[in-house]
Amino acid sequence: MIMMLPFLTALLAIGFAIRGQRTACAGLWLITALVLLAWSAYHMTDPLPISL
Q1: Which of 30, 36, 41 is nearest to 6 (CA)?
Q2: Who's near 6: CB < 8 A, 6+ residues apart?
Q3: Which DSSP letter does residue 4 get?
Q4: Distance CA 51, CA 26 (A)
Q5: Which residue of 21, 40, 43, 48 pairs with 16 in a disulfide if CB–CB is 3.0 to 4.6 A?
Q6: Whole-angstrom Cα distance, residue 28 to residue 33?
Q7: Cα–chain-centroid distance for residue 18?
Q8: Predicted confidence band at 2 (pLDDT cuts at 50, 70, 90)?
C-alpha cells in the first residue's frame, strides 16, 4: 500500500488542479515530492541482497 501513496497523492493533486484549487494542488505536489524523496532515500541506502 505504501508504494501506491505517491500515485494517490499525485492523482489528488491533479484533481485539485482541474478544479482550480491552487493551494491544495501545490500542497499535494509538495507531499508527493517528499514521499518520493523519502522512498528514494530508503531504497538507495537499503542493502541489495543478490544471490548468485
Answers
A1: 36
A2: 32, 35, 36, 39
A3: G
A4: 43
A5: 21
A6: 9
A7: 19
A8: confident
